[in-house]
């Protein structure tokens, strides 16, 4: 995939949102107005079906993981939800309204492989991009925005490297920078595409800690992940795919021998959830 610049790929005009009060964490169901409801979602690339008739709910106050084998449509599902690829059927609703009309509620962190790490920007520059919509283009950043960025960098343990060019960072450090950028957007929905690829254990621990903090604030978190190992314990709900929905629900409901056999064509060992 061709690399593109930060400003082209991650324009905050699409994904910035005002800060909202923290809400108490609570359970949701299929009728919840604070959930993302996906109905009969289908995606085709020309004549090739990438996803077919996906129906599921992504609850607020939960960390939801999208799992499945390579080529299962995990990233495609996330991009379809966010309107980054066209859908051939179905709809995606948030608070009973089309999510496409509410993208200012969303913070999206793509795969690191899609980012041009040679772009001449520092850690501070990248994280500050999350405040552009709040501030406005070609306007000076406010004291409030600078404080928000400072706190986000401290939260992910990157404040000491704020003046470092992003291309000089390790994979884990780069991922933490983009997590900080997402935090500055103060969104209601956080979407992460393969955030754990090529990172260190310290970064993984920091990311999961922040995910659970955001869930406790009743935010909605959707995470594409390929690892069916111990990391699944950090997810509240799972969506298991293989070009169609295999199962969705709690870990115990999804990680059954039958579901894993269907998703991975018998090529994964069953383990107790």
TrEMBL record:
Gene3D superfamilies found in the cross-reference section: P-loop containing nucleotide triphosphate hydrolases
MF-aspect GO terms: ATP binding; ATP hydrolysis activity
Transmembrane segments: none
CDD domains, per database record: ABC_Metallic_Cations (cd03235)
Methyltransferase as UniProt keyword: no
Domain ABC transporter: from-to ranges: 36-268
Record's keyword terms, sorted: ATP-binding, Nucleotide-binding, Transport
Homology family: Belongs to the ABC transporter superfamily.
Protein name listed in UniProt: ABC transporter related protein
Organism (species): Nostoc azollae (strain 0708) (Anabaena azollae (strain 0708))
């Amino acid at each position: 995939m061709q690399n593109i610049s930060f400003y082209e790929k991650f324009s905050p005009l699409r994904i910035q949102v005002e800060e909202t009060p923290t809400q108490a964490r609570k359970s949701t169901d299929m009728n919840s107005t604070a959930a993302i409801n996906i109905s009969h979602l289908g995606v085709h690339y020309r004549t090739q079906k990438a996803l077919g008739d996906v129906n599921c709910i992504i609850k607020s106050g939960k960390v939801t993981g999208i799992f499945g084998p390579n080529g299962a449509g995990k990233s495609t599902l996330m991009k379809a939800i966010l309107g980054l690829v066209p859908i051939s059927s179905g709809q995606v609703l948030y608070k009973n309204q089309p999510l496409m009309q509410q993208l200012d509620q969303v913070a999206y962190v793509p795969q690191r492989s899609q980012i041009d790490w040679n772009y001449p920007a520092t850690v501070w520059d990248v994280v500050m991009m999350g405040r552009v919509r709040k501030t406005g283009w070609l306007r000076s950043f406010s004291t409030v925005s600078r404080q928000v960025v400072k706190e986000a960098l401290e939260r992910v343990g990157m404040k000491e490297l704020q003046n470092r060019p992003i291309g000089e960072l390790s994979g884990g450090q780069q991922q933490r920078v983009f997590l900080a950028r997402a935090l500055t957007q103060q969104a209601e929905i956080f979407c992460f595409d393969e955030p754990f690829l090529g990172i260190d254990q310290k970064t993984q621990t920091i990311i999961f800690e922040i995910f659970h903090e955001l869930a406790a604030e009743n935010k909605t978190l959707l995470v594409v992940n390929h690892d069916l190992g111990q990391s699944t314990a950090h997810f509240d709900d799972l969506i298991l795919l293989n070009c169609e929905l295999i199962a969705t629900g709690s870990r115990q409901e999804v990680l059954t021998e039958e579901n894993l056999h269907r998703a991975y064509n018998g090529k994964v060992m069953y383990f107790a959830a």
